[in-house]
Fold this sequence. Notes:
The chain is mainly alpha-helical. It has 2 domains: 1-35, no CATH class; 36-449, Growth Hormone, Chain: A. A hairpin with a 2-residue loop joins strand 1 and strand 2. The protein is built from 22 helices and 2 strands. The longest helix has 31 residues, at 146-176. Strands 1-2 form a two-stranded antiparallel sheet.
Amino acid sequence: MSTPHEPQKVDERHGADPANPDTSLISLSGQQRIPDQKVASATRKKVVTASFIGNFVEWFDYAVYGYLAITISKVFFPEADPQVALLSTFALFAISFLVRPIGGFFWGHYGDRVGRREALALSILIMSAATFCIALIPSYSVIGIWAPILLLVMRVAQGFSASGEYAGASAFLVEYAPRRKRGLYAAVVPASTATGLLLGSLIAGMLTTLLSEEDLTNWGWRLPFLLAAPMGLIGRYIRSKLEDTPAFRELAEKDEAIKAPAKDLFRDHWKSLLLASGVVLLNAVGFYVILSYMPTYLTTVVKLPEGQSHFATTVALLTYIFFILGTGMLSDRFGRKRMLIVASVCFIVLTVPAFMILDTGNFLMILLIQILLGGMLTLNDGTLPSFLAEIFPTKVRYSGFAVSFNLSNALFGGTAPFVATWLIQSTGNDLAPGFYLVAASIVSLIAVSFAVETSRKKLR
């Protein structure tokens, strides 16, 4: 047994400590590596479970609005033309994203100063409370203009909460993960996000199938929002039982947490911030076009029945969840940069042909295309969380991730349903959302081409 002052013995054939296979001591280039902090396997399992459940709850709450957009437009904008009402509903969806960069600064500062766990425990309470309150808002016919105003306030609160969730959960998992499995661990975040979307899609599809249009408009749409309260309390309880990450605890013990993470981020890491914001673009547009806006597109443009639209998206989400963890593992094996490049190229080449097939209205083909698009998206989404967490040092990791991720999502993700609907209306081209997604892929490809590989490097 070596003392703290003696070097560890290394298995020269494999470059690893035989007693601890999770800690690689020699990099592929032959440079010495510092072993990962030892974390009990049971602790890591609790971290993964808590991160999955907490993120699942947040994004179920957040996504239900998108799946019930058509019904919500009738409740809060009943006097408008159906297309204008839908645009107004998606405008509220987009406006809630405008607060996300502000939330990114807040949660990044809070998470880098106070701790990842505390930030995540607080954000889930805000999200659940705001979602529950949406269920209680009277309709436009009861309180007039105050109905959409209150809806806007709750959507802003949801956006503020969501701005800290994805980044915080990803940083939390990456800082707990073994070096060689950071991609797999971080992929739990988009997997849980998609699971939240899946439940939202299932419930929305069930409601539209089982209830009459009148019952759905009068009271049925409120039911998923009411689930937020008990689910949020469960998620909050689970998160409160965890310790903060080893990386953050080490900073706290050494009193190295900086007072102004944002200032340090923009002064010393602006290149990484700019690069990350560009790489996120494909995720921002792709995620909300393919997994949130698509049921509305299939119903209003392709003229598919609502039940079939939700079913197709549900199947796509199931395959997305199945693929996403595998993509995380592939990014550990082949590297983040390579996976992100492949994702961008796939979208550039295949998106418009995929939308052309969607426009045929053939349900079986629509189902296959939904699965294809979801699988392509996992190439990006399964890699992105670990990539964003790895390019920023621990002192500003939460801030760097939150600001870059939420900036792109605010400008291009939250506006994607609105832009897609507007492009179709203004150009008369049903393929417009596909071209928009191609443009986002090109920008993302350019950004990632300037990135350095981060998967085999020790966290800074």
